[in-house]
Amino acid sequence: MSFYKTQFPKSSVFPKLHMLEKHTIPWLRRWGGVGCGFMGEQGAESIHRWFNSERQTYATMAEGVEQLQCIMKEHFIHITPTNVALEKLRTDVDDTRTHT
Which of helix, strand or coil describes residue 32? Predict the structure, then answer.
């Protein structure tokens, strides 16, 4: 930002530049690498399209909580593939608890 202000002293700071400077790094630190794009209009439309596609995948299930849980789990893994390892770890821990 200092480069921009030095090179273009009479220019105003436009909203996207402000977002990059002030909010992107804290966002990435807080949400573990999930990009800010998910919060914008384009990101929301993309998620909506993806959910509709996944709904077709689970169309044989009765609509309700179980179907939504499956779709949400797929979405969780889709946006951050490292979540697959976390899910496996959680499942292994749950299996250990039920078999003791």
Answer: coil
Q: Measuring CA to CA, which residue among 32, 6, 28, 8 is closest to residue 19? A: 28
Structural tokens at position 30: 């807080």
DSSP conformation class of 11: S
| pTM for the structure as a whole | 0.41
The CA-based dihedral angle spanning residues 82, 87, 92, 98, taken in that order and rounded to the nearest 10 degrees: 170
**Of 88, 73, 91, 78, which is closest to residue 38 (Cα–Cα)?**
78
Q: Based on C-alpha coordinates, what's the Rg of the chain?
A: 20
Structure confidence by residue, pLDDT tens digits, 68-96? 888 888 887 777 777 676 666 666 655 55
